[in-house]
Specification:
Radius of gyration of chain A: 21 Å
Distance between the termini of chain A: 42 Å
Radius of gyration of chain B: 19 Å
Order of helices and strands of chain B: HEEEHEEHEHHHHEHEHEEHHH
Mean pLDDT of chain B: 86
Strand order of the largest sheet of chain A: 6-7-8-3-9-10-12-11
CATH architecture of the largest domain in chain A: 3-Layer(aba) Sandwich
CATH class of the largest domain in chain A: Alpha Beta
Low-confidence stretches of chain A: none
Helix content of chain A: 25-40%
Number of helices of chain B: 12
Mean pLDDT of chain A: 90
Low-confidence stretches of chain B: 1-7, 271-277
Strand content of chain B: 15-25%
Structural class of chain B: alpha/beta
Number of strands of chain A: 12
Number of domains of chain A: 2
Order of helices and strands of chain A: EEEHEEHEHHHEHEHEEHHHHEEH
Shape of chain A: globular
Largest interface: A-B, 49 and 44 residues
Shape of chain B: globular
Largest sheet of chain B: 6 strands, mixed
Distance between the termini of chain B: 55 Å
Helix content of chain B: 25-40%
CATH architecture of one domain in chain B: 3-Layer(aba) Sandwich
Strand order of the largest sheet of chain B: 6-7-8-3-9-10
Strand content of chain A: 15-25%
Largest sheet of chain A: 8 strands, mixed
Oligomer: heterodimer
CATH topology of the largest domain in chain A: Rossmann fold
Chain lengths: 342, 277
């Protein structure tokens, strides 16, 4: 059985609103990343994916506060809470080396006036002050060669690189310190299909060469996730509602929300041409005042009375977890996707 | 939208409404120039959705900007309803902009954060000199077209709307001008799958119910497959393949189109592919 690289448990992160009310964007979530695997985190915009990534990367800044949660990674236990005084300093040693974050739009954050090699030196020195230029260059050159990327990018400015190359370059830079876990937030969303494929191939090569020991890949793009991940976790309104091996989850969605998301994927196929996709009715709830019971029930085609009053517990079927009352009543049954198409 | 305009007949379905003929765009760079769009000729037929697909840098958005007259052409002609509009100015250009509306990629940056949806829509029509009641009626109708509840939506600020709702408001804003052509440049690429489907359904309904001509620019072939009647494939500023959606997507002739299709991540097929990397 695969060992667990990282286990984040009971993670709760809130945004402190001006009204004084805390809005829990991640609500008591537990997530595991097995050793050497890529775990996908998917869901609609605003479901808490990025907040979860920021909390796990220990970069939560006000108004985001991690209220509770701990991370066990490689026999080490880290308190993720940011409420304690000095937590920023306490978390600093873990950033970049234990957990590295590749944030959304990272490729657009590269300074237009500095060459890539200067970025490499800055990143290395932020973690080890006495790093020499030669050491930083050696590390970056070796890494680029290992990934069969041209070393000339080090002497380029950001505007001289294509979007796909820029994104691959920031991915390489964010992993120079060999983090145990990489959290990649929407790394492929701004790329066209060919650049997406190149980045995915590079990520898989990085995991294979053990540059990092696990990846959390955050995106709303399910086809990309199914291509790259070993496991998938689906988030809705701050909670994980389904979690399992990617192939199993894609072929046998047990939560109506997962099924609705999968049915919204537009592949260039005959079915897409002929069917009318209905999408998911309604909008995600206000997290400051989420619906009672199962949070998806107001938008669910399969909602029953119990869904409105009681939050479903996780049901575990062969390593495939789902929190849904419909799934509870229909053991091992796939949610019928036909209801989302006309 | 004045009464006169609203009664103006749309071009018959299938007739060319907007055309680019031998259009070229070159940008000067140090040591020479680059050709972003190279001798492109394409017709947009009334009441149809034409998708322009291609990778980043293939010239899709440059072509769109020239069609919108937001960027001058280096050579070639843009004609609208049979009339050359390549160099029109002043009132004529403003009339053209009323007829050919656009929705861009980023629904987050298109709003003034301090204005409600109602204020945003009213300001867009400020120069049209409509009476208050007519304007409110128009806002209600256009928000209805895009599936938003007018009574609810007009009082909301942008931050109170989801990405999909904001993009729908942008489509409604474009519709208020009663356009003949709607140009959507990567209008759904920042939306997640379910919101994307709802925005595409809005465009589909508009084509069917209002006979709107839609130019849909995307790098996502799946979306083109769902929405478009015809597809044009661009590579390095050139049109490399064109035809009906079925022809281009299911029987591609060009090698570049085939490669583009092969690179599309597919929910189930890719599970096997991933192991071959």
């Amino acid at each position: 059985m695969t060992s667990i690289l990282m286990r984040a448990s009971n993670l709760t992160a809130v945004y402190a609103a001006d009204s004084g009310q805390d809005v829990p964007a991640v609500d008591n979530v537990t997530l595991e990343v097995p050793e050497g695997q890529i775990v996908g985190l998917a869901g609609e915009s605003g479901c808490g994916k990025t907040t979860m990534g920021n909390a796990l990367a220990m970069i939560a800044n006000p108004p985001l506060y991690v209220v509770a949660g701990k991370m066990e990674i490689d026999d080490e236990e880290i308190d993720l809470s940011t409420l304690a005084r000095g937590s920023n300093e306490a978390h600093r040693p873990y950033r970049g080396s234990t957990v590295s974050l590749l944030p959304q739009g990272a490729m657009n954050a590269v300074s237009p006036t500095l060459k890539v090699k200067n970025l490499v030196i800055d990143v290395m020195r932020a973690h080890k002050r006495d790093t020499t230029v030669a050491e930083a260059m050696d590390r970056a050159t070796d890494r680029l060669k290992m990934l069969e990327m041209p070393t000339r990018v080090l002497d380029s400015y950001a505007h001289q690189l294509s979007g796909g190359m820029k994104q691959r370059m920031v991915t390489v830079v964010s992993t120079l310190l060999n983090p145990k876990l990489l959290i990649a937030d929407e790394p492929t969303s701004a790329l066209d299909v060919s650049s997406q494929k190149a980045l995915i191939e590079m990520l898989l090569a990085m995991v294979e060469k053990k540059i990092m020991r696990g990846v959390i890949f955050i995106t709303h793009d399910l086809p990309v996730l199914s291509m790259v991940t070993d496991r998938l976790a689906i988030m809705y309104a701050g909670k994980i509602v389904e979690n399992g091996p990617t192939e199993e989850l894609v072929n046998n969605a047990r939560h109506p929300y997962t099924s609705a998301l999968l049915s919204s994927v537009l592949d260039p196929t005959e079915e897409t041409r002929t069917k009318h996709v209905l999408g998911i009715p309604g909008s995600p709830p206000n997290l400051g005042n989420p619906p009672s019971g199962c949070r998806f029930h107001p938008r669910c085609q399969f909602a029953m009375d119990v869904c409105k009053v009681e939050e479903p517990k996780f049901l575990n079927e062969r390593d495939h977890e789902v929190a849904c009352w419909w799934a509870n009543d229909h053991a091992y049954e796939t949610v019928p996707m036909e209801v989302y198409k006309a | 939208m004045s009464d006169k305009d609203s009664l103006e007949a749309r071009p018959a379905v299938g007739q060319p409404v907007l055309s680019a003929t031998h259009v070229t765009k070159q940008f000067r760079v140090s040591g020479g120039h680059i050709t972003a769009v190279d001798d492109v000729s394409v017709d947009f037929h009334a009441g149809k959705v034409l998708a322009v697909v291609g990778e980043s840098g293939s010239g899709k958005s440059t072509l769109a900007r020239m069609l919108l007259r937001l960027m001058p052409v280096t050579s070639g002609t843009i004609s609208y309803q049979g009339k050359d509009v390549t160099h029109i100015k002043g009132a004529e250009l403003r009339k053209y902009w009323r007829d050919v509306q656009a929705v861009f990629q980023d629904p987050f940056s298109s709003f003034n954060q301090f204005y409600t949806v109602g204020q945003t829509l009213r300001r867009g029509m400020g120069a049209q000199g409509l009476e208050k009641e007519t304007l409110e009626q128009l806002i209600e109708t256009c928000l209805g077209y895009v599936g938003l509840k007018p009574g609810d939506a007009v009082h909301k600020y942008p931050h109170q709307l989801s990405g999909g709702q904001r993009q729908r408001v942008m489509i409604a804003r474009a519709l208020m001008m009663n356009p003949k052509v709607l140009l959507a440049d990567e209008a759904t690429s920042m939306l997640d799958a379910s919101l994307r489907v709802s925005a595409l359904n809005v465009l589909q309904d508009l084509r069917e119910n209002l006979g709107l001509t839609v130019l849909f620019i995307t790098h996502d072939i799946g979306q083109a497959c769902y929405l478009a009647d015809e597809v044009v494939v661009m590579e390095h500023g050139l049109i490399v393949e064109r035809g009906t959606t079925d022809e281009v997507i299911f029987e591609p002739k060009n090698e570049y189109t085939k490669r583009l299709l092969a690179d599309v991540p597919d929910l189930k097929g890719s599970l096997k592919v991933s192991k071959d990397f």
